[in-house]
Amino acid sequence: MLDGILPVFKEKGMTSHDVVFKLRKILQMKKIGHSGTLDPEVDGVLLILLGNSTKVSDYAMNLGKSYKAEVCLGLSTTTEDISGDIVEEVRLGQITAEEIKNACSKLIGRITQIPPIYSAVKVKGKKLYEYARNGNFDVERPSREVYIHSIKLDEASIVNKKSRIYFTINVHCGKGVYIRTIATQIGELLNVPSCMSSLRRTSSGKITIENCYTLKQISEMTKEEISQILYKKEYALESYKFYELPKYRAKQVMNGLRFRKNQFSELDFTEGIVFTYEGDAIAIYHLRDKNDELLSVKTTFPKEIS
Fold first, then answer.
1. Which one is catalytic: 18, 39, 43, 81?
2. Contact (CB, 8 A) for 256 and 57
3. What is the Cα Rg of the chain in Å?
4. Is 39 a catalytic residue?
């Protein structure tokens, strides 16, 4: 069975679930997941998790992501992108690159976002887009804190078309960020209606579009060829420190044994430590509280140890 992270270039017109469905047929295996949903009209990097690597899904979502987005000033919509119904439309004059860059700079760092009404965020057990489809646009949307590492304006991309201004930004951010909402927030800072007019995910962690394969390319590969392009599950754990265990300790881990932190006095478990055996991650142990004496198991990754 294939096991690892498959870097896929998701094309427009497909949901992330569609990609998983098609790959189950191509690879003839059921244990497949993905990390970080992309909307149907968004293309770019989609990390597909195969086999036991589905267990690193949450960790893969924490990998920083980069996007190339086109923003449209002068138009706002119900969906916060160009596909939605028009909410407000104005004719714009001149807006300078400096004004746009100044607005972008105010969105760097830890910021608060309110998810779009057309999103999968759940409120009282229902997804927001379900409320919207039923005509309920007044449901209270919970705000969330997200982190933006950088927003860079491509000054050469600024154009004025029919009194609307379009420009491209490159965004590097943490998990949970809605780029559509970044587009509307830029407009709010400029005091004009705005929305996102196109989006591409350009990287997930260090994996870029250049590292990805289309479904067609994958369908033409042998299982052996596919195994050669997989990233190990450890890629999703790169923010942790790794510690190699001897066989007897690795067996204890696989049996669910809890350890005292003084058994590994040289290690700091505050953020968690990935235990490995023969180079493979087998578990993550951490301290739930800094005053705890016993280490807690965060995740285990099954491995046969003979």
1. 39
2. no
3. 22
4. yes
